[in-house]
Amino acid sequence: MKKETRVTHQPKVKLLEGNESLVGPVYRSVKFTFPDLGSASSKDARSDGFDYTRDSNPTTRQLELLAAELQDRDDAICVSTGMAAIWLATLSNLSVGDRIVFFAESYKPTRSMIRDRLSRFGINFSMLSVHDLDAISEVFSDDDTKLVIFESPTNPLVQIPDLSAIVKFAKKYNVKTILDNTFGGLHNHGDYGIDLFVHSLTKYASGHGDVMGGIVIGDQQQIKELKPWAVNMGSTLDPGAAYLILRGLRTYYLRYQRHSETALTLAKFLQGHSCIERVYYPGLEEDPGHTLAVQQMDTFGAVLSFDLRGDSQIAQRFIDELELFATASSIGSTESLVAPVRRYFASDLSDEELSQVGITHSTIRLSVGLEDAGDLISDIEKALSRVFG
Ligand SMILES: Cc1ncc(COP(=O)(O)O)c(C=O)c1O
Question: So what's the architecture of 57-249 in CATH?
């Protein structure tokens, strides 16, 4: 064989029987083959074989199996981002004339997907408050309502919806439930009868802010129905990205626990501070969502929000004075982040909707990283004293 040919037909390195790598390999290959056409079309090959990475890939599959198990379900499909997961789960469950229910207390791009985009394709929608159980039950009882998408805790004001009540109404009226569990995390809410979980794996799962990914998790039948949509849409997760997320998951529980402890420490500090009007964090005993949160979750995550006493200019100055918090909109990675809520997460809401949700000109969201809690508190203290004197 000429060397020009050898570079394409490279030597294969096979591990000895029993000689295993402790970290799974990254299967970068787009294509997979079999020794002959007969074995390529065998029953096993058709059910468990790999053919083309847009359909499935062993590294990505490893992530799907792990994430499904953490979320107490038996199957999952990875996609390239959290938004792609939200699109896949919603689009594949709607037809012209159907109604989707969603909430003012949710991630802005989800609202935009429904109000600005799905509506162009004959999908009806109702936007409610996630706390208005009477209105939820009423709209679920409409014949055209087929789907509800919600979050817990919600982005950005970490509100806690009553999962049992929403699931109960949904089952009664045959409405499919999608929980965007990005804030809750893979270890929370598995014991509620949610049909499909979606996650942005960009956040806690990968944990280091260096890779994007999304996943839809459910029981086997639900995922089997979604699979042809995912393959056809082609928003495949790259196997290299899947590998980074698998690596991040090795420390997932430690990180989520630490994020939660630090966030609670900061929430308590802010709650007692004279420059702070109100703090939103479900881990605080005084938070209206605390009782439900304790029933529904183990720990409460990295995100907290608060209203500064002051206007948007004061809020902006405070944000600019922080040194350990970078101004950015993501969550759940090692570094702490800060963002003005109205500008970053609510520019699509009317004044009336903003006041219903509780977002003011001085509402600020923090995503607490893995830094020392004392350092973060002194950074906040310094910023507050520079702004308020
Ligand atoms: C609650 C929630 N869902 C979905 C997403 C979208 O995730 P991605 O940026 O991976 O598309 C985000 C991103 O911030 C989010 O906060």
Answer: 3-Layer(aba) Sandwich (3.40)
